[in-house]
Amino acid sequence: MPRQPIVARTLAELDRVTACYRTEVGRIALVTTMGALHAGHLALVRFAQTKARRVIVSIFVNPTQFAPHEDFGSYPRTFETDFAALRATGVDLVWAPKAEVMYPPGFATRVAPEGPAVVGLEDKFRPHFFGGVATVVAKLFTQVRPHMAIFGEKDYQQLKVVTRMAADLDLRLDVIGVPTVREPDGLALSSRNVYLSAEERARAPALHRVLRECAARIVEGKPLAAVTTDGAAELERTGFVVDYLAARHAETLAPIDSAADGPIRLLVAARLGKTRLIDNIGV
Length: 283
Hints:
Blueprint: E1 6-8, H1 11-21, E2 28-33, H2 39-51, E3 54-59, H3 79-89, E4 93-95, H4 99-102, H5 122-125, H6 129-144, E5 148-152, H7 156-168, E6 174-178, H8 198-203, H9 206-219, H10 224-238, E7 241-249, E8 264-272, E9 275-282
Parallel strand pairs: 1-4, 2-3, 2-5, 3-4, 5-6
Antiparallel strand pairs: 7-8, 8-9
Helix pairs in contact: 6-7, 9-10
């Protein structure tokens, strides 16, 4: 039977447990989450368990990465269900601080990422987002002090922002990306998929299908601009409202003009009804 994970809710509790972990031979891995765990999160945990002796999962719904019009208040909070899933997976420690622990009275410091955080993708539509992500992730890294942190590639721009931040601030850990976990029909797993109606859920796999078709056309030598324009038009015909469908340099996320400027990552964000979905694939 998997062991019962320890739950830490204060920095003192976290320090007491992680100090013991650091006396052991082996590495510590951190998986950061906002809860509402699904199979994609658990895949990150299982990957971490292949790389580290101890696996810590953080659960914190971070208010600073939500704009006033976004779904912070309605974001799913399912700690008991999440804890049961983590217990079954054999996690060692759950770090679940309250907002006043992460942002105590007088908190006045923010991380302002640039580079891949300001390339006109998610940052164009959610200008507050990566500052909130970078700040909370920097705090989690310094609180837990893991040897590595595991992130999913579904949030690809976030992965690149966090990787750049960790390197720039000398946080001395490895940031590792894990391939996106998908439903059998190709839809990337996401906590926000529960917001889709039955009709929207039936249309949603077109997002990944169009990305694959775009990638195939790029491999055939078609111009990037024409490929992404046609792909966005196809998504609109399917019922999406497209924020962006872009071909970018896979490491910097800078705009590129041709496949010769690669490696290439195709990234998309689009809305079905009230639900905003993102996805990406390499070319």
